[in-house]
Amino acid sequence: MVEALYDKEICCSICKNIFRTKKVRTSAVRLEKRDADFCVYYNGENPIYYAVFTCPNCGYTAFESVFQEISPKDKKVIIAKVSNRWVQRDFGKERNVYQAIEVYKLAILCGQLLNQKKGILGMLCLRLGWLYRYIGEIREFDFLKHAIDCFEEAFRYERLPIGNLDEISLIYLLGELNRRLEKYDEAIDWFNKAVNNRAIKQKRKLDILAREQWRIAKEAYKKQKGAEQNE
Questions:
Q1: DSSP 71-101
Q2: What is d(CA 199, CA 193) in angstroms, rounded to the nearest whole number?
Q3: What's the CA gap between 203 and 169, in Å, rounded?
């Protein structure tokens, strides 16, 4: 639904190029369903595809929320490591899932070069995992693993929230991501932290979900251990 999109004008903080990129109108967002790790499915345009901006001139790529946060030192890094090797491409039009995958990979590259906060890198990896899930690609699990590593470090050392993820939501999410990777003992530990945190009582839906996913993880853990003993 092209009419759901509009153009946003951006000035690149690296090369000062002015470019246009698509965004999804809030009024056009139609939620279809949500997975237990917060992965959202939409009827119509998917806002996740457009949350990352890419300058077509220099290749600098980042979440919209941090796109302008560039120091002179960071600018030199991007020019040397990205812009000098960049083949000009325009991701400012309507995007499909494969183009979204490409821009998220570019954002992760830039984020790593700039030593961005682990919370930001974790969110990029999480969403890239979701994009692979949309197309049934097994690489989803590689990026969920990267997301866990980043989020665990962010939980220990960085200020929360991370976007919409407050502390209790992040604790729950770490449980669910570990469960999906069949790391059931770690999942159970994070779910225990979630359900025993007072803050979860302010989020009834999350409380119910955490207890259900904890139960599923416990059952899977027992089966896993039973299978190992029978080998």
A1: -HHHHHHHHHHTGGGPPP----S---HHHHH
A2: 11
A3: 9
Q: Flag whether 223 is in a domain.
A: no
To 10 degrees, what angle do helices 140-157 and 118-134 make?
A: 160
Residue 50 structural domain: 2-140
Give the tens place of pLDDT for each residue, 28-41: 999 999 999 999 99
Neighbours of 140 (CB within 10 A): 19
Lookup result for tokens 């939501």 = 169
Amino acid at 176: E
**What are the pLDDT digits (tens) for 58-74?**
999 999 999 999 999 99
* H or E, element range at 8: strand 5-11
Angle at 102 between CA 96 and CA 107, to 5 degrees: 125
Peptide bond into 72 cis (omega under 30): no
Mean pLDDT of 192-216: 97
Q: Does position 1 have pLDDT exceeding 50, yes or no?
A: no
Number of domains in the chain: 1
Residue 125 CA to residue 1 CA, distance in Å, equals 27
What is the pTM assigned to this prediction? 0.95
